[in-house]
Amino acid sequence: MDGNRRWARQLGQPVLTGHAQGATTAAKVLEWWLKYLPTTAVGKREMRGGK
């Protein structure tokens, strides 16, 4: 989370703002991952012949 602290300080914001932004970004990444990864995993399995 060091990058979040640095980001907040560069903007003159409290450190907790940086951590909150980092949590928001992590949630977006997780949402994307859950949306697209299962589709990719199933697709690869089917391409190998469904074994």
Automatic annotation (TrEMBL):
This is Uncharacterized protein. Keywords: Transferase. Pfam families: Prenyltransf. It comes from the Eukaryota. InterPro entries: UPP_synth-like (IPR001441), UPP_synth-like_sf (IPR036424). It comes from Mycena maculata. One of its GO terms (molecular function) is transferase activity, transferring alkyl or aryl (other than methyl) groups.
